Amino acid sequence: MSTSFVCFILFALASTMCTVNAGYSPLTAGFYESTCPSAEKIVKRVVNNAIAQNPALGAGIIRMHFHDCFVRGCDASVLLDSTPGNPAEKDNIANNPSLRGYEVIDQAKAELEAKCPQTVSCADIIAYAARDSASKLRGLKYTVQGGRRDGRVSLKDEPTQNLPAPFFNLQQVQDSFTKKGLSIEEMVILSGAHSIGVSHCSSFAKRLYNFTSTNSQDPSLDPNFANILKSKCPNVSPTIADPTIVQDFVTPNKLDNKYYQNVQNGKALFTSDQTLMTSPTTAGMVRNFGRQGGVWANKFARAMVHMGAIEVLTGGEGEIRKNCRVVNQF
Of 285, 273, 308, 301, which Cα lies nearest the Cα of 180? Predict the structure, then answer.
């Protein structure tokens, strides 16, 4: 089994090649070379076509990979539909209605089943699709190892127990990442994915209208930015209106380091983002990545690969689902 892989990070003016140690991972590069040689090409084509029609799907798929790996490991449990008496992860408030991209994974799976029946796991499809989304939105190109198997359990309450919430403080966010074997630097690096995608107003409305008993508005928010958000997010119940807002107003569909500049300037949407400035260590990382977009992109690729190996099922564990939404019936 290979213990390293080579990743290529392509920037507008230069190319950087990096070798990433994958000794922590039981996965293998080129896993489907003999069983389904076109697997990764099929996923890439489906993802590229989807993002070309709707760029927001790229952010949704990257977020899906994160939400999958942080709950039961990278086993595609986030894709399973609820069944009578068993509400699943996708119906948790962290995923419903905000998680996007299910139809892209479904299409890739359908094409793979037609080409190579019951060979490519849904978990690997998510990992490949997240990589291809980063490529489409940034130009990042890195190798994703395969060999994940699909889990057979998905429980609605588990995302709440495992995913960092948008209102978390720094210690709470750190604890969430540490429990998954990710470093503080990887936490800051992966948070940069908030340079793309959208958020429902309800995820940050407390910062605008009901922050504390002494401050109705979060003082760490740039006042002008807060006014813009208030104009787009009225102070009403989410059941009446819960619009979506882009995470980055400047380059909303480009995976770049503008996120770190936003955090420094008090223009991040979530408390969990702005809290990175409350520690000298993480604030220093934010400033560095805000200046060095290429360095961040390189490390983002490494962190995505590391995250993609969290608590994976391999070998005879789990299964290869025929349909990503339901477990196999025997």
Answer: 308
- Asked whether the beta carbons of 4 and 22 are under 8 A apart, the reply is yes
CB count within 10 Å of CB 253 equals 17
67 catalytically annotated: yes
Q: Which of 65, 67, 194, 306 is catalytic?
A: 67
Contact between 137 and 255 under an 8 Å Cβ cutoff? The reply is: yes
Number of CB atoms found within 10 A of residue 175's CB = 12
The pair phi, psi for residue 187, each rounded to 5°, is -60, -50
Q: How many beta carbons lie within 10 A of that of residue 82, not counting itself?
A: 15
Q: What is the DSSP letter of 45?
A: H
Residue 5: φ, ψ to 5°: -140, 160
Condensed to tens digits (0 to 9), the pLDDT of residues 39-95 reads 999 999 999 999 999 999 999 999 999 999 999 999 999 999 999 999 999 999 999
Please state, in angstroms and rounded to a whole number, the distance separating the CA atoms of residues 318 and 50: 29
Query: Could you give the CA distance from residue 50 to residue 44 in angstroms, rounded to a whole number?
Result: 10
Cross-strand bridge partners of residue 4 = 21
Give the closest residue to 134 by CA, choosing from 58, 197, 66, 74: 58
Phi then psi dihedrals of residue 74, to 5 deg: -80, 80
**Chain centroid, CA 269 distance in Å:** 16
> How much is the average pLDDT of 252-269?
97
Return the percentage of the chain with pLDDT > 90, whole number: 90
Q: What is the pTM of this model?
A: 0.91
Task: Give me the phi and psi of 322, to 5 degrees please.
Answer: -80, -35
- Please, are residues 172 and 58 in contact by the beta-carbon 8 Å criterion? no
